[in-house]
Structure prediction request, 254 residues.
Amino acid sequence: MRMRFKNQVAIVTGAGQGIGLEICRRLALEGAHVVLNDIEVALAEEAAEKIRKEKGNCLAIGGDGGDVNFIEQLVRETVTTFGKIDIVIANAGITLFGDFFDYAPDDFNKVMRLNLGGSFFSGPAGGQKHARSKAWWSYFIYVIRNRTSGTQKSCCVWNEQGRIGNAGKNLVIELSPYGITVNAIAPGATATARTKSDPEYENTWSRITPIGKPASTNDIASAALFLVSPEAGHITGQTLVVDGGWTSVSPSPY
Ligand SMILES: NC(=O)c1ccc[n+]([C@@H]2O[C@H](COP(=O)([O-])OP(=O)(O)OC[C@H]3O[C@@H](n4cnc5c(N)ncnc54)[C@H](O)[C@@H]3O)[C@@H](O)[C@H]2O)c1
Prediction:
């Protein structure tokens, strides 16, 4: 097992299950001290306990990853406990379906507040105050990485199609002088407990994805870990699409 993140401190939001949990697990198994957040406190505790059972170092902090005050508290508690922050991944995100013509403003605001606002405000909270170098971002996951040794970098990966990509480009200009890189991950269909609650999910996406299957949480976590690793130190303002080729053809699942 490589230990690319030994003694690094990482925050991952919305990580009680699915992609976020796998990112936490992989970071912890590669030596990071991981702060695992979820709005469902019990789920966060349970997930952190699973990682500790695998000998990973993981602390659960429950709370709303879309709430600016909570994000600041999360950052403060992390610094108090571990003394620094190297990586922040704003993975928390929701999908609310609805007809365009009837889409409820409250639903729109909920999605924007968490998927875009949560990612956006994790940047300054983790990046400017405590991280000192590189940020990466991603369409669906926002990560800040802050190296306190060597060249001092932090990385952000985040998650909100399109808007996040554009915001990342702008953040590059603002954050590069601080040595912060910003990149984005755009996951395609990914098999999780949530998505697999649709019994047709895997069959449908296997049929319309050139590689022949939806992503696993491990596939997305591998991309996130690459973006926060030293190997990606010269990559900034980019979006990494991890979709098994789906965007080359883009057939609708419906
Ligand atoms: N699974 C996919 O196919 C897919 C594809 C593209 C993008 N994404 C994005 O990747 C991210 C992870 O997706 P997933 O499928 O693993 O999600 P998931 O639904 O399996 O898990 C998300 C977790 O976030 C938590 N959460 C919800 N609101 C929160 C909040 N306000 N604060 C903190 N935690 C909160 C939930 O309790 C849940 O445990 C999301 O942002 C999602 O939009 C997923």
User: Anything to note?
Assistant: The chain has one domain: 9-189+217-242. Residues 169 and 237 are 5 Å apart (CA to CA). Residues 105-128 form the longest helix (24 residues).
